[in-house]
């Protein structure tokens, strides 16, 4: 609990302060699975995403408070009771709401100090859901909190979006709304590193998943097409897809770099990498252990053999084998500035004629943890430390005995 509390306090103390808005002007929106929200059509990036549970939309407290104009000084967290309190103060009047994590009571205290008197009215209602504490962040049910502070909340089921308006104002049919966002695939993960359990909610645009599946289907069936059908297919391909196809088809056996360099997936994994790095950084992990923390997440994904590699986004949602998990790990680490190489142990080294793929990561000697026997590959004057992605329990630099005397082809990720 100590580490979770530290993360939460940091989150609460870094709330942005928004300027006041004129009556009728204010409009905020949060979309499930989206890592930004809007206030009067201005986008503000979040490091967490809203999600739906028990038919209620949950929003991280720091961003909900931000959208409602509540500054950091008016957000408090009581570790002992697990209570969050938000206070909206205007002049001599204020509204204060408080909720406890995993409890359904919401208490509102309204105070009016006009005419040198102070009147306080307290009211408690029972919500049908409770606030949640996930990865050190408190998530609040958006509707209850916004309405307790006098706002009107509208839910758009088609776009999975919550709109928050001034009291008495709502979204009406025919009003121009922000462009509907992509629908998202939401997936939760739980894994263990350094004796601690972590959970993470990830959202992936359905458009990216559909795109990845289409690419993989095209590659899987390419050799079944006649030359004429291949020419016709190329004529109707967007340029970036044709470039990816050519890179995959022309790559040497075991060279997964085209799958890592695919633009949409590499951009998508950049935001994921920053979230994972933030989680590791909040625990005080150094550069080596941050990479090992990310490795532990990739290891926790289901191992599923596929004849072809999977793009990083597909592996994240569906799992994958050594090929696909290595692509995902290398993508995440590349986005964080780590130098990596891909290792391909050819099929002839194994009785099953399948071969093996892995990743190795460059570190300086002063970055290595003391007292650990670490396996490394030398490449261009640097030591790259082995990372086994297929199963949990393998620390960074630990190598299966079966592979220790095998030869591997090296493919540097040098773009």
From TrEMBL:
Q: Name one Pfam family in it.
A: Cu_amine_oxidN1
Q: What is this protein called?
A: Copper amine oxidase-like N-terminal domain-containing protein
Q: Which InterPro entries match?
A: Cu_amine_oxidase-like_N, Mao_N_sf
List UniProt keywords, sorted A-Z. Answer: Signal
Instruction: Give the signal peptide range.
Output: 1-22
The Copper amine oxidase-like N-terminal domain covers which part of the protein? 38-164
């Amino acid at each position: 609990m100590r580490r979770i509390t530290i993360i939460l306090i940091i989150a609460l103390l870094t709330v942005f302060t928004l300027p006041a808005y004129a009556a009728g002007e204010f409009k905020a929106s949060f979309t499930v699975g989206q890592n930004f929200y809007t206030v009067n059509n201005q986008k503000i990036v979040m490091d967490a995403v809203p999600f739906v549970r028990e038919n209620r939309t949950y929003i991280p407290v720091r961003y909900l408070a931000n959208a409602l104009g509540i500054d950091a000084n008016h957000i408090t967290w009581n570790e002992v009771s697990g209570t969050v309190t938000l206070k909206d103060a205007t002049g001599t009047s204020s509204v204060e709401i408080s909720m406890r994590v995993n409890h359904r009571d919401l208490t509102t205290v309204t105070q009016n100090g006009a005419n040198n008197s102070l009147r306080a009215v307290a009211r408690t209602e029972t919500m049908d859901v409770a606030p949640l504490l996930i990865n050190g962040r408190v998530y609040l049910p958006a509707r209850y909190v916004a309405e307790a502070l006098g706002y009107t909340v509208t839910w758009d089921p088609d776009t999975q979006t919550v709109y928050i308006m001034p009291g008495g104002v709502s979204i009406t049919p025919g009003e121009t709304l922000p462009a509907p966002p992509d629908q998202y695939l939401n997936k939760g993960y739980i894994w263990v590193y350094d004796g601690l359990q972590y959970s993470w909610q990830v959202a992936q645009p359905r458009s990216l998943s559909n795109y990845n599946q289409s690419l993989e289907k095209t590659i899987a069936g390419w050799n079944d097409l006649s030359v004429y059908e291949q020419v016709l297919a190329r004529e109707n391909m967007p340029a970036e897809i044709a470039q990816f196809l050519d890179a995959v088809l022309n790559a040497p056996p075991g060279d997964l770099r085209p799958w890592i360099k695919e633009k949409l997936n590499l951009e998508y994994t950049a935001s994921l990498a920053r979230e994972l790095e933030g989680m590791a950084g909040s625990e005080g992990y150094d550069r080596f252990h941050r990479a090992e923390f990310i490795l532990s997440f990739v290891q926790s994904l289901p191992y599923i053999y596929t004849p072809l590699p999977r793009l990083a986004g597909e592996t994240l949602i569906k799992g994958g084998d050594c090929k696909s998990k290595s692509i995902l790990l290398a993508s995440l680490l590349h986005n964080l500035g780590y130098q990596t190489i891909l290792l391909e142990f050819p099929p002839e080294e194994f009785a099953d004629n399948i071969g093996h793929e892995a990743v190795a990561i460059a570190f300086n000697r002063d970055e290595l943890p003391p007292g650990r026997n670490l396996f490394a590959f030398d490449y261009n004057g640097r030591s790259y430390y082995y990372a086994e992605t297929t199963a949990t329990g393998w620390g960074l630099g630990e190598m299966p005995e079966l592979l220790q005397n095998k030869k591997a082809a090296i493919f540097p990720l040098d773009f």
